C-alpha cells in the first residue's frame, strides 16, 4: 500500500523560519537548520521550504538556503517562492531541490508549468494554489502569499494546471492557514477527486485528528503541516534550554488564542496516530542494524 | 583500503546532486561525468535520471554514452540504474512511442496499466513512499543491493512507467500499487536497478548505496 506523505512545511523569511496566520503577521521562530535535520530524523516524508517574501519583493534568495538544507537531507525537498522562469527552476534544482512549487508565476504565465514540465519532468512541478473561500462551493486563487486577488476560480485552475503538466497540486486554504481550526476538508476533497495527479493538503492543522480527517474525508494524497510541528519542536528545545535563537517565541508561553487551538504534535506521534486508523504511513524502523 | 570511486552518468536528466551526496555519504568518491572515456573506465557506475524514456536514450546517444555504459556492464563491473536509469537498462521502452533501450536486461518498460481498484489514493504518477517485498522465487536479499532490508521497508517512488523483465527471476523486489504488483528492483549478475530513489529514501536508502559499493 502506498503511504500518505507527511510533509513538514518551513516558511522562510530571510534567514529564518517564520509562521503567521492566514499567511500574515509572521513570527520569527529560528533558523531552518534548527528544524529541518530534526524533522528528517523524526521521519518526515518530505520537506517543503516556502520563501514567504521572495515573490513579494521580486527577488530570489532561496538557492543558498536550499543548498544548505539539502546537504544532509535524504528525503525529497520541495521549494517554492518567487520562481518566475525555467532558469529559476533550474537553479533551485541544481541547489538540491527535487521539486519546485509555483503559484504567482504559474497564474500569470501558465506556460511556465508546461515549459518546466518539459524541461525537468512533470514530477518536478508542483502547482501551489492559495485558495480563499468566496461563498458556498466557491474559491478564488490568491497570489503573492495571499495578498493579491486574481479572480481565477480554484477548481478551474486545478484542472487547467493538471492539463498543463503539473505533477502535483499543493492546495492551501488561506482561511484556515495558521489558525489550527483544521484543514478545509471539502476544498481538499473536491480538488483531489477532480484530478489524477497527487494532491497535497495544506493549511489549518491544529492537532493529529485534523490530519486524519483530511486524509480520510478529504482524500489528500499528502498532508503539509507547520505550526503543530514547529511549536512542538520549540517547546522541546525551550524546555531543555536548547533554544538560543533570537526568535519571537514568547507567544508560546503566553497561551494566546491561536496557541490554544494548536496542539503540538511530533512527527512520530502523528504517524503512530494515523496508522492506528489503518492509514498507510511510512514508519521508521526502530532497531535498525 | 583506498576509497572506491563511483561514476555517475550525466546525460542532462535528473537530480544528480543528491545521488552524488548519497555516494559520498556511503563512503566513496563520486564523479559526475558525461565523458565517454570517463564512463567506460568506471569501477562502479550509476545511471540516474528522471524523465521520459525516449529523451533519456536519445540524450545518452547524443553524448556517445551508450557503448561506454555497455562496455562497463559486459566487463562485469557493477552498474546501478535508478528510476529512469533502471528503465533504460531494459530492451525497449513504450513511453511516447517505442524506443530501444540499453538492453542490459531483457524486458520492456510499460505504462502503469489501468488500475483494478481505482480509489481516491490511486494517482499517476505514483509519487510517494511504498513498501518493497521479496518475490516468491527469492529466499533472501543477501549479497544484493537490498541486503539487510526487510520486506515492507518503504522507499520513495516517482514514476508513471514500470519495468517488466522477460525473465521473472530477475525481479529483485516487488511493490504493489493500485492493484498492480510491479518490479521495483531488478538484478541480473552485475547489473541492478531500482525504480525508487534510494538517495531520497532516508537511512534505509543510504544502506542501498553502501550495499552497491560491496558488489
Question: How is this structure best summarized?
Answer:
Chain A has helices at 32-42, 54-57, 62-70, 86-95, 104-108, 111-120, 154-164, 185-194, 208-216, 227-239, 250-254, 257-261, 267-275; strands at residues 5-13, 16-21, 24-30, 46-51, 77-80, 99-102, 125-133, 139-143, 148-153, 168-173, 199-202, 222-225. By secondary structure, chain A is α/β, with parallel strands linked by helices. Chain A has one domain (5-275): TIM Barrel (Alpha-Beta Barrel).
Low-confidence stretches of chain B: none
- Approximately what portion of the residues of chain A adopt beta-strand conformation? 15-25%
Instruction: Provide the domain count of chain B.
Output: 1
Q: Write down the Rg of chain B.
A: 16 Å
Overall description:
The complex is a heterodimer of chains A (289) and B (215). In chain A, strands 1-4-5-6-7-10-11-12 form an eight-stranded parallel beta barrel, surrounded by eight helices. Chain A is of the alpha/beta class and 289 residues long. The two termini of chain A are 25 Å apart. In chain A, a hairpin with a 4-residue loop joins strand 8 (139-143) and strand 9 (148-153). Helices cover 38% and strands 24% of the residues of chain A. Chain A has a single domain, classed as Alpha-Beta Barrel (TIM Barrel). Chain A is built from 13 helices and twelve strands. With 215 residues, chain B is an alpha/beta fold. Chain B has one domain (5-214): Class I glutamine amidotransferase (GATase) domain (Rossmann fold, 3-Layer(aba) Sandwich), CATH 3.40.50.880. Chain B is 24% helix and 30% strand. Chain B contains six helices and 13 strands. Chain B has helices spanning 16-25, 36-40, 53-62, 66-74, 84-87, 202-214; strands spanning 5-9, 29-33, 44-47, 79-82, 92-93, 99-100, 107-111, 126-131, 154-159, 161-165, 171-177, 180-188, 191-194. In chain B, the strands form three sheets. Chain B has a seven-stranded mixed sheet with strand order 2-1-3-4-13-12-11, sandwiched between helices. In chain B, strands 6-5-7-10 form a four-stranded mixed sheet, covered by helices on one side. A two-stranded antiparallel sheet of chain B has the order 8-9. The mean pLDDT of chain B is 93. Classes of the chains: A alpha/beta (289), B alpha/beta (215). Chains A and B meet through loops of A and helix 1, strand 8, strand 9 and helix 6 of B.
Amino acid at each position: 500500500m502506498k503511504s500518505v506523505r507527511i510533509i513538514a512545511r518551513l516558511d522562510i523569511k530571510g534567514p529564518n523560519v517564520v509562521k503567521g496566520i492566514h499567511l500574515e503577521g509572521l513570527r520569527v521562530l529560528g533558523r531552518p537548520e534548527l528544524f529541518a535535520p530534526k524533522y528528517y530524523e523524526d521521519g518526515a516524508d518530505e520537506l517543503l521550504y516556502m520563501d514567504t517574501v521572495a515573490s513579494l519583493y521580486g527577488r530570489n534568495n532561496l538557492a543558498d538556503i536550499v543548498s544548505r538544507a539539502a546537504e544532509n537531507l535524504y528525503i525529497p525537498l520541495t521549494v517554492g517562492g518567487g520562481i518566475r522562469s525555467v532558469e529559476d527552476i533550474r537553479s533551485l534544482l541544481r541547489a538540491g531541490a527535487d521539486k519546485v512549487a509555483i503559484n504567482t508565476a504559474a497564474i500569470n504565465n501558465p506556460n511556465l508549468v508546461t515549459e518546466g514540465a518539459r524541461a525537468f519532468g512533470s514530477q518536478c512541478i508542483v502547482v501551489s494554489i492559495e485558495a480563499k473561500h468566496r461563498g458556498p462551493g466557491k474559491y478564488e486563487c490568491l497570489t503573492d502569499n495571499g495578498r493579491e486577488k486574481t479572480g481565477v476560480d480554484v477548481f478551474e485552475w486545478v484542472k487547467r494546471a493538471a492539463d498543463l503538466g503539473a505533477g502535483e497540486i499543493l492546495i492551501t486554504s488561506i482561511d484556515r492557514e495558521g489558525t489550527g481550526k483544521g484543514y478545509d476538508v471539502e476544498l481538499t476533497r473536491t480538488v483531489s477527486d477532480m484530478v489524477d495527479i497527487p494532491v497535497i493538503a495544506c493549511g489549518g492543522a491544529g492537532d493529529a485528528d485534523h490530519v486524519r480527517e483530511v486524509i480520510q474525508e478529504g482524500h489528500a494524497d499528502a498532508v503539509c503541516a507547520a505550526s503543530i510541528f514547529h511549536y512542538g519542536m520549540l517547546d522541546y528545545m525551550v524546555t531543555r534550554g536548547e533554544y538560543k535563537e533570537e526568535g519571537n517565541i514568547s507567544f508560546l508561553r503566553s497561551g494566546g488564542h491561536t496557541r490554544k487551538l494548536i496542539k503540538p504534535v511530533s512527527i512520530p506521534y502523528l504517524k503512530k496516530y494515523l496508522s492506528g486508523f489503518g492509514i498507510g504511513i511510512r514508519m521508521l524502523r526502530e532497531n535498525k542494524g | 583500503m583506498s576509497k572506491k570511486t563511483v561514476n555517475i552518468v550525466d546525460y542532462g536528466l535528473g537530480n544528480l546532486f543528491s545521488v552524488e551526496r548519497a555516494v559520498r555519504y556511503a563512503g566513496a568518491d563520486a564523479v559526475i561525468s558525461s565523458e565517454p572515456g570517463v564512463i567506460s573506465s568506471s569501477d562502479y557506475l550509476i545511471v540516474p535520471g528522471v524523465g521520459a524514456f525516449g529523451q533519456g536514450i536519445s540524450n545518452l546517444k547524443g553524448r556517445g554514452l551508450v557503448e561506454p555504459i555497455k562496455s562497463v556492464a559486459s566487463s562485469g563491473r557493477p552498474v546501478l540504474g535508478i528510476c529512469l536509469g533502471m528503465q533504460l537498462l531494459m530492451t525497449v521502452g513504450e513511453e511516447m512511442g517505442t524506443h530501444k533501450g540499453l538492453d542490459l536486461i531483457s524486458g520492456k518498460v510499460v505504462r502503469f496499466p489501468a488500475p483494478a481498484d481505482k480509489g481516491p489514493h490511486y494517482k499517476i504518477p505514483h509519487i510517494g513512499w511504498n513498501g518493497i517485498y521479496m518475490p516468491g522465487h527469492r529466499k533472501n536479499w543477501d549479497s544484493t543491493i537490498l541486503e539487510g532490508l526487510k520486506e515492507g521497508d518503504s522507499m520513495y517512488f516517482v514514476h508513471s512507467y514500470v519495468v517488466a523483465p522477460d525473465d521473472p527471476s530477475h525481479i529483485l523486489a516487488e511493490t504493489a500499487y493500485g492493484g498492480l504488483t510491479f518490479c521495483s528492483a531488478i538484478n541480473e549478475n552485475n547489473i541492478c536497478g531500482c525504480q525508487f530513489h534510494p538517495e531520497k529514501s532516508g537511512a534505509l536508502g543510504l544502506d542501498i548505496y553502501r550495499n552497491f559499493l560491496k558488489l
